[in-house]
Q: What sequence folds into this?
C-alpha cells in the first residue's frame, strides 16, 4: 500500500475511534495546522485527529503503531522551537478539546487538569482558593498545560519558582505502546522527571496533576531606567550578590524598548539604554525591607518607578510582555533566540553580541530574563531583501555559539524541537546524546512518537550499548547524517 | 586475580574484606577512582570482566534498599571529592560525587550560600544524596535533590562518560538524565559529578513548635500554616506521644519575627531559635519507610500505625513522611499505609519478610529503562524497585 492509501485507510480507522467529525483530512483544514509558534518551519500533517479522552489517544497511538505511521502531539501550537511541527506522512494528535479542569484540591495544593487546559485557566480556577499555577510563559493566555509539560516551560517568574517540572506531581501518559500509565513521584525511577520536558518524544500526556502555589501576601514591582546596559547589568549582579531572590528580574535594551513603545506605548523612561523590571513577592515584612534594598542597589538608574497597584504593575509588565510581538513594528521578520549564559558573563556576552551585530550589519534587540541569564535576542531582518535571512541565521547561530562557549545552553525554555536539533552536538558529545536516547529507546523503540525532534541523529534502539563499531547503520543506509 | 590486576591498572584497587560488605554481601574487590577518567577506566574494566558493581560514598545509606544480589566490585567514590567549580555570582556549584556534603556546606557558607538540602542522615556525600533521593524538612520550600540538580556526569555500565544538563539553572536542552539518576540507587550508572543551583543563606531563622492533642488537630495546625501567606520553609509533624507540629521560617532579621508571631497565633506553642531535637532526623526503628500521601491524609496515616512502638515524622506540607516501624508486623503496617498513598521500606532487618516497594505504576517502563542503561544487569543488581 502506498503512503497516501495507507493514510486513507488509517483515517478510516481513526474515524471509528473518535467519530468522523473529529478526523480532518481536507487539505484546507490540514493546512491550518502546518506549523506551531515557529512559523519558519512548516509541514502539512497527513491527518489531524481531535480526541476527547485518554482512551481514544491510546487507541490512536496503537493504530499508528500498527501501521508504522509517525505521530505528533499538539496542544495550542504556541511552541517556539517547532516541537509540534507535524509530519506530512503522519498523524497530528491535537489535545485542544481536552480542556476540563477536573479537580481543584486547595487543601492539598494541587489541581488535576486535562492537557488542553490553558495555562492561565489553571490559575483562574485556583484563585478563588487563594492559589495560582506558578509557571507563567509569556504565552500563558493561550498555551496549554500539555504543551507546558512537553516543553518544561518556564516564564518570567521561574527565577524564584522554578519550571513546570517543579510544579507537576503526576502525569497520566499514553506511551508509544498505546498503554495508559501513571508517572508519579512514587517508588522507582523518576520517569515523571524524565518525561516532563521530553518535547513530546516519550509519549502523550492525557492528565496532569499540578502543584498550586499560595498567592503571595504582597507583590512589589519597580521599573528602573539606566543609561547603559552595562549599568543595568551591574545592578542585577548587585541584587543577586545581596542575597535577594526576586520573583523576576527582566531587562530590555534600547532597541527592544523602541519596539515596545511603537507597539503598546508602554511609556518607559525616555532615553534609557536599558530598563530593568524587578519584582519581589512574599510576606510583606520580608518584601518591604528587601525592596528597599533593591532600590538602593539600583542607585545608578536615572529613574525608578514603583508600581503603586496592580494596574501600574500591569503597565510596567506590558512593554516587556509585548516585546516579541512588538518587534514586528520595527522589523518585517525576526528570529527569537533562547540561549542561556551564566549570569555573570552577561556584560561580556552582550558586548560580543553587539560586535556580531555591527560586523554583520544585522540588528539585534535584547530582551531577557536577566536573573537567570536566559537571553532572548531578537535577530531582525527583512525577508524580502536577498540574503538577509541567511545573514540573520548566521548571527543567530553565532549567538548560540557564544552561549555554549560561556558554559551556557542553547535553550532555556523554548525547547530544542526541530529548530535547534542541529545545535545539540555543539553542546553535548555524541556519547551524551547516545545516552539520552537510551531513554527514548526504552519508551519508543520504533521511533514513531514525534520523530526527528530534539536529537539530530536517531539512535538505533536494537543495538547493544557501547558495542557499536564502524559506521552507524542509519548513516550507511543514507537515512541519517552525522553532524 | 586477573580482574584485580586489570582494575588496579585503572585506579587504586584491593581485594574486598568482610568490613566492606553491603548488607552482608562482601565484594571481591574494592576500587577507589580519583578522577572521572579513572572512574571511566574502572567501569570499562568491570564491564570487560563482567563484574557486578555497587557504588558507595560515605556509606551512610548503604543499608537502604534491598541487599544486592551480587557485588563483585565496590566502587568507593570518596577520592572523587573535589569542588569542580563554585560560581558564587551565578549561585551554582559543581562538585564530584564523593564530596562530603558537610564539607560542601562549609565552603558555600563562606560565600553566604547553601545547597538547600537537609542531611538525612548526617555525613553523606553528593553522590549518596542523589542516588537515594532523600530530602528533609525544607523540601517544602526548596524541593528535593531532583529540583536542585542542574547537571550530572555519569559513567555508564559500559564505561562511557555521559553528561546531561549543564551549569546554568535554566536549561531545557536534551532529556533530564539527572532526574532519572536521582533516587536510582546505583542501578543505572555511576554518578561522578553533579551541578546544583544554590540559594543565599537566610540571615534570620525561627522555629515555632506546638503540641497537638491528636492527629486531627495536628492536621488543622499544619493546614493553617500551609494556607497562610507566611511562606514557611518547612512544616514538620512528629508523633505520636506527643504529636508535635513545628514550623521553620527563614528570611531577613526584620521579617522573620512578625512571621513567627503570626505562625504562633495560628498553632500556639513557642518560638525558638533552634529546632526541636527530632528535627531533620530520621525516626529510629527496625524498619524505616518513606511514606507519600496527600497532606490531608495525615490522621489516616497515624491511624494505620501499629500501637506503641511506631513513629512518623516528616513534611506535612509536601506529604512526604518517614515512618519507623517494629519489624514484627511491618509488612501489614506498610500494606495499611499504602491505602492512602505509597510506602517504601528503606531499611529492614536482614531476612525480614516484607514487600519493600508495594505497587509500582509504570514498572514495565522502568525495566526497559534499566535494560537500556545496563543490559547485563550488573549495576547494583536487585537493590531497587521491582528487583531491578
A:
Amino acid at each position: 500500500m502506498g503512503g497516501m492509501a495507507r493514510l486513507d485507510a488509517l483515517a478510516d480507522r481513526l474515524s471509528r475511534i473518535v467519530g468522523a467529525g473529529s478526523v480532518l483530512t481536507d487539505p484546507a483544514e490540514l493546512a491550518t495546522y502546518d506549523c506551531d509558534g515557529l512559523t519558519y518551519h512548516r509541514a502539512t500533517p497527513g491527518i489531524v485527529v481531535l480526541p476527547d479522552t485518554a482512551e481514544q489517544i491510546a487507541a490512536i497511538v496503537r493504530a499508528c503503531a500498527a501501521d508504522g505511521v509517525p505521530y505528533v502531539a499538539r496542544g495550542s501550537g504556541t511552541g517556539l522551537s517547532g516541537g509540534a511541527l507535524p509530519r506530512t506522512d503522519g498523524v497530528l494528535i491535537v489535545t485542544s478539546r481536552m480542556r476540563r479542569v477536573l479537580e481543584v484540591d486547595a487543601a492539598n495544593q494541587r489541581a488535576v487538569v486535562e492537557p488542553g487546559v490553558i495555562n492561565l485557566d489553571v490559575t483562574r480556577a485556583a484563585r478563588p482558593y487563594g492559589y495560582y499555577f506558578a509557571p507563567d510563559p509569556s504565552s500563558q493566555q493561550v498555551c496549554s498545560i500539555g504543551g507546558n509539560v512537553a516543553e518544561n516551560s518556564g516564564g518570567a517568574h521561574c527565577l524564584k519558582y522554578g519550571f513546570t517540572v517543579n510544579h507537576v506531581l503526576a502525569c497520566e501518559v499514553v506511551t508509544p505502546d498505546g498503554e495508559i500509565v501513571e508517572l508519579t513521584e512514587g517508588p522507582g525511577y523518576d520517569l515523571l522527571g524524565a518525561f516532563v520536558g521530553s518535547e513530546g518524544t516519550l509519549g502523550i500526556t492525557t492528565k496532569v496533576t499540578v502543584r498550586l502555589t499560595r498567592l503571595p501576601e504582597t507583590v512589589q514591582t519597580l521599573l528602573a531606567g539606566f543609561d547603559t546596559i552595562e549599568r543595568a547589568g551591574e545592578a542585577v549582579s548587585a541584587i543577586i550578590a545581596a542575597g535577594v531572590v526576586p520573583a523576576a528580574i527582566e531587562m530590555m535594551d534600547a532597541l527592544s524598548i523602541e519596539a515596545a513603545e511603537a507597539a503598546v506605548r508602554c511609556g518607559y523612561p525616555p532615553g534609557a539604554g536599558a530598563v530593568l523590571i524587578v519584582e519581589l513577592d512574599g510576606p510583606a515584612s520580608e518584601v518591604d525591607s528587601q525592596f528597599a534594598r533593591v532600590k538602593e542597589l539600583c542607585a545608578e538608574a536615572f529613574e525608578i518607578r514603583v508600581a503603586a497597584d496592580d494596574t501600574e504593575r500591569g503597565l510596567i509588565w506590558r512593554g516587556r510582555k509585548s516585546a516579541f510581538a512588538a518587534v514586528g513594528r520595527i522589523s518585517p521578520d525576526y528570529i527569537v533566540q533562547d540561549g542561556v549564559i551564566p549570569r555573570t558573563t552577561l556584560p561580556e556576552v552582550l558586548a560580543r553580541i553587539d560586535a556580531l551585530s555591527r560586523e554583520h550589519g544585522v540588528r539585534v534587540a535584547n530582551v531577557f530574563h536577566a536573573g537567570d541569564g536566559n537571553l532572548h535576542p531578537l535577530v531582525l531582518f527583512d525577508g524580502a531583501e536577498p540574503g538577509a535571512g541567511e545573514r540573520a541565521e548566521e548571527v543567530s547561530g553565532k549567538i548560540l555559539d557564544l552561549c555554549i562557549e560561556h558554559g551556557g545552553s542553547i535553550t532555556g525554555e523554548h525547547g530544542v524541537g526541530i529548530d535547534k536539533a542541529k545545535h545539540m552536538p555543539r553542546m553535548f558529545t555524541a556519547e551524551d546524546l547516545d545516552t539520552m536516547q537510551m531513554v527514548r529507546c526504552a519508551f519508543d523503540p520504533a521511533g514513531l512518537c514525534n520523530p526527528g525532534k530534539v536529537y539530530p541523529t536517531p539512535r538505533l534502539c536494537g543495538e547493544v550499548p557501547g558495542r557499536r563499531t564502524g559506521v552507524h547503520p542509519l548513516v550507511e543506509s543514507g537515512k541519517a547524517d552525522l553532524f | 586475580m586477573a580482574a584485580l590486576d586489570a582494575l588496579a591498572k585503572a585506579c587504586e584497587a584491593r581485594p574486598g574484606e568482610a568490613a566492606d560488605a553491603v548488607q552482608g554481601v562482601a565484594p571481591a574487590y574494592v576500587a577507589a577512582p580519583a578522577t572521572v577518567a579513572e572512574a571511566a577506566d574502572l567501569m570499562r574494566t568491570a564491564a570487560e570482566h563482567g563484574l557486578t558493581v555497587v557504588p558507595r560514598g560515605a556509606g551512610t545509606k548503604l543499608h537502604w534498599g534491598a541487599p544486592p544480589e551480587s557485588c563483585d566490585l565496590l566502587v568507593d567514590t570518596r577520592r572523587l571529592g573535589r569542588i569542580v567549580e563554585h560560581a558564587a555570582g551565578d549561585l551554582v556549584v559543581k562538585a564530584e560525587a564523593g564530596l562530603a556534603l558537610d564539607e560542601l556546606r562549609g565552603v558555600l557558607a563562606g560565600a553566604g550560600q547553601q545547597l538547600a538540602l537537609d542531611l538525612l542522615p548526617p555525613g553523606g556525600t553528593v553522590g549518596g544524596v542523589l542516588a537515594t533521593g532523600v530530602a528533609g524538612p525544607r523540601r517544602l520550600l526548596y524541593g528535593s535533590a531532583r529540583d536542585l540538580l542542574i547537571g550530572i556526569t555519569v559513567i555508564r555500565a559500559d564505561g562511557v562518560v555521559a553528561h546531561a544538563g549543564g551549569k546554568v539553572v535554566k536549561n531545557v536542552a536534551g532529556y533530564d538524565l539527572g532526574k532519572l539518576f536521582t533516587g536510582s540507587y546505583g542501578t543505572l550508572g555511576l554518578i561522578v559529578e553533579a551541578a546544583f543551583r544554590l540559594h543565599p543563606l537566610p540571615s534570620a531563622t525561627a522555629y515555632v513548635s506546638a503540641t497537638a492533642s491528636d492527629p486531627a488537630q495536628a492536621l488543622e495546625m499544619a493546614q493553617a500554616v500551609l494556607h497562610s501567606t507566611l511562606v514557611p520553609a518547612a512544616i514538620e509533624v512528629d508523633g505520636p506521644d506527643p504529636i508535635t507540629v513545628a514550623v521553620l521560617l527563614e528570611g531577613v532579621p526584620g521579617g522573620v519575627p512578625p512571621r513567627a508571631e503570626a505562625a504562633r497565633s495560628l498553632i500556639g506553642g513557642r518560638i525558638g531559635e533552634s529546632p526541636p531535637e527530632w528535627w531533620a532526623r530520621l525516626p529510629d526503628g527496625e524498619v524505616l519507610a518513606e511514606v507519600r500521601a496527600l497532606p490531608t491524609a495525615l490522621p489516616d496515616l497515624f491511624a494505620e500505625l501499629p500501637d506503641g512502638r511506631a513513629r512518623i515524622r516528616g513534611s506535612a506540607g509536601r506529604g512526604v513522611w518517614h515512618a519507623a516501624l517494629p519489624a514484627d508486623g511491618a509488612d501489614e503496617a506498610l500494606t495499611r499505609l499504602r491505602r492512602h498513598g505509597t510506602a517504601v521500606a528503606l531499611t529492614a532487618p536482614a531476612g525480614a519478610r516484607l514487600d519493600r516497594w508495594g505497587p509500582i505504576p509504570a514498572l514495565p517502563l522502568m525495566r526497559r529503562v534499566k535494560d537500556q542503561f545496563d543490559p547485563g544487569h550488573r549495576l547494583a543488581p536487585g537493590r531497587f524497585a521491582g528487583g531491578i
